[in-house]
Amino acid sequence: MIHDANTWFAERLSDHGIVTSYLEDHHPAAMPCLQVRRLDWANVAEEARRHQMRFVSLWAAEAGAHDEKALYAYMAFAHPEHRHVLLRTDLNQNDPALQDIGRHYVAAVRMQRSLQDMFGIRVEGLADTRQWLKHEHWPDDAHPMRRDFPATTRMQESDGEYAFIRAEGDGVYEYPVGPVHAGIIEPGHFRFHAVGEKILNMEERLGYVHKGVEKRFEGLTAAEGVRLAGRISGDSTVAHAWAFCQACENAAYLELPAYAVTLRAILCERERMANHIGDIGAICNDGGFAFMHVQMQRLREEMARMHRDIFGHRLLMDLIVPGGVACRLSSETAAVLAEDSRRMAAEVEQLRSIYADHPSIQERVIGSGTVSVEDATSVGLLGYAGRASGVYADERVEEAYPPYDKLNVRVPRGEFGDVATRVWVRFEEVAESARLICELLQALPEGAERVEFNAPEAGISGFDAIEGWRGEIAAWVRFGRNGVIDRYAVRDPSEINWLGLELAVREVPVPDFPLNNKSFNCSYSGNDL
Amino acid sequence: MIGLFTKIIQTGKRAEALGEAEHATELLGEQLGAAIRKKFQGSLAIREVDAGSCNGCELEIIAANNCYYDLERFGVHFVPSPRFADMLLVTGPVTRNMETALKMTYEATPNPKLVVAAGDCAINCGVFGKDHYAIAGSVADIIPVDAVIHGCPPTPTDIIRGILQAIEA
Ligand code: SF4
């Protein structure tokens, strides 16, 4: 059941002697933001862990319009029954330092490294102090998210080398891959340590497609910002645009007409289907089963064509806008879309039985790249990666934002955690999304597709969590003067799920790496921002 | 196995079974085939480089290889290394963190070589904007470019048309 607001965590903290206060300028109250003392920071995280909360995100923001001098750190947690809660503390601007929470939540480590890079915040006790998004050639004193660092700065080249983890021992060899990969995919670097053909360890080095997106948001209106949000990770354009808009709308206390949220969900579920379909094909291709690849790419293309015909864009870009959506369905197009979704699901189901009957692909996927329930819980894996390993967080159920509050979303529950289970989850989700689309289309509400969006006062922030096809996108926006955004902090599920891939491929033969990589298919762009 | 073969037969040959839009692609493909035959002896090897894209462009380049467009029919294929590529197809604004890798990829590609910048970002940095600390510039700011393909992202048909433009230039 959905609680009205998360007051539970503040109560738990107070049981433990940690003082909190609710911030009035944060919306929605249902996912409150609690101010805590800096010296309680790590204790708060420890309590969250003890109460089995999932780590959601960590970020910082400088200077709200109302208090120019402040530098704040934020973190967010979620509980399946008690919803999201945000915590904030203020830092000393001249020597910003924060306690490490990585020992309670491993997923926070890279985010803390990013805080060091982007804000120059020292994280005390951080186990891994290497730079993350900031590559070796950036000057040491460049902290681009600080106010005194103009967005247009041309940074000097500087030298340095990234200290990869080393492995020694008989027959251990090191194998660097990337940043430019062999396929038509995004860039990133993987450092393998292997013995014979088995991977001992794989270390990710990302940040290559860091485009300074968060800095770019500063000074944009919501209408301008949504175009950028829709390009944080092109394959999740709908989910990211939705996350951005809903954070803005929450900040502005804007309630949307039922028609608008219904269409958003239809678009989001279509995006989920298209990506799962494409990825199932690509996973099979990496397992040498070209038939599935060709068939799945065909279906994906047919979906893209349908999207172009009905919505005007093959990938569904720029359809979600602050205040609603920029499209309408006629009763004919609604019927066509429902029929198409049904047909897709039926074809995928048929292909699934061929896949299940094909021993050579089954041999490759079953038992490959296992992530245990324990590890997945500890990392807090999201989306299908989590659902294959016993972590069933799904914001359509936990936060049940409209229109999912009126739907009964069935979340697949796997626990073997191998490639086969991740594929199984995706098959299940294709079927479920098709069912949801048909249900939504059948009862398409009356009303406007869009209402006027007016930015809130300076200093007001809004938060939300949207279930994109990869998993939860957590978005936090704060408005400044003149109705423009002064900070947008967004956490793509990939930022957490990349850790899952590192865990999965230990002990996996090197040639099975691509198969595993595809089964996670994390976004580089969404991670690097 | 019976199911698999039945599905293949039922699916048929999509590339020819399509109507008008598909014809346009076909035509482009044929012109492309002729041009390649002349200049690249019937085979054009492309190395795709994402220099900072949002990955939307990659989705459409992958789609240009699906059974509807089937770029490979015309002797165009994507290769895993720049060492045996004739053309670099580059997407995205070039990020500071990809600048060196892009230059190295360009240098590793043997002459004669062509560079096609695909997508608005590759042409003018798109929504990410030029004067920005994390962006090194458009593709042409970093390496010589022979053709550009507009669109955010360009459609598979646009991509095929762009490749054609490059080899006829
Ligand atoms: S052109 Fe559009 S789709 Fe391509 S990388 Fe840029 S934003 Fe993404």
Short overview:
The complex is a heterodimer of chains A (529) and B (169). With 529 residues, chain A is α+β, with helices and mostly antiparallel strands. Chain A contains 17 helices and 16 strands.
Task: Summarize model confidence as the mean pLDDT of chain B.
Answer: 82
Total domain modules of chain B: 1
SSE class of chain B: alpha/beta
Number of helices of chain B: 8
**CATH class identity of chain B:** Alpha Beta
Shape of chain A: globular
User: How far apart, in Å, are the first and last alpha carbons of chain B?
Assistant: 48 Å
Strand elements of chain A, count:
16
In the CATH hierarchy, what is the superfamily of one domain in chain A?
NADH:ubiquinone oxidoreductase Nqo5 subunit
The hetero molecules present are:
iron/sulfur cluster
Quaternary structure of the protein: heterodimer
Poorly predicted segments of chain A: none
- Which CATH class of one domain in chain A? Alpha Beta
Total count of helical runs of at least 4 residues of chain A: 17
Query: Major beta sheet of chain B, specifics?
Result: 5 strands, parallel
Q: What is the architecture of one domain in chain A at the second tier of CATH?
A: 2-Layer Sandwich
In which range does the helix fraction of chain B lie? Answer: 40-55%
Describe this structure in words.
The complex is a heterodimer of chains A (529) and B (169). With 529 residues, chain A is of the alpha+beta class. Among the domains of chain A are: 4-124, Beta Polymerase, domain 2 (2-Layer Sandwich); 165-211 and 494-529, Enolase-like, domain 1 (2-Layer Sandwich); 212-254 and 455-492, no CATH class. Chain A has helices at residues 8-15, 41-50, 108-119, 213-217, 222-229, 237-251, 258-286, 290-311, 331-356, 359-365, 373-379, 383-387, 395-398, 419-442, 494-504, 513-520, 524-528; strands at 20-22, 26-27, 33-36, 54-64, 67-79, 83-91, 97-99, 122-124, 172-177, 189-195, 198-205, 320-321, 324-325, 461-468, 471-479, 485-491. Chain A has 17 helices and 16 strands. The two termini of chain A are 34 Å apart. Helix content of chain A is 39%, strand content 18%. By secondary structure, chain B is of the alpha/beta class. In chain B, strands 2-1-3-5-7 form a five-stranded parallel β-sheet, sandwiched between helices. In chain B, helix 3 (20-40) packs parallel to helix 8. The longest helix of chain B has 21 residues, at 20-40. Chain B starts with a helix and ends with a helix. Classes of the chains: A alpha+beta (529), B alpha/beta (169). At the A-B interface, helix 4, helix 8, helix 9 and helix 17 of A face helix 1, strand 1, helix 4 and helix 5 of B. The complex binds iron/sulfur cluster. Iron/sulfur cluster (SF4) is lined by residues 53-54, 56-57, 91-92, 119-121, 126-127, 152-153 of chain B. Iron/sulfur cluster binds at residues 53-54, 56-57, 91-92, 119-121, 126-127, 152-153 of chain B.
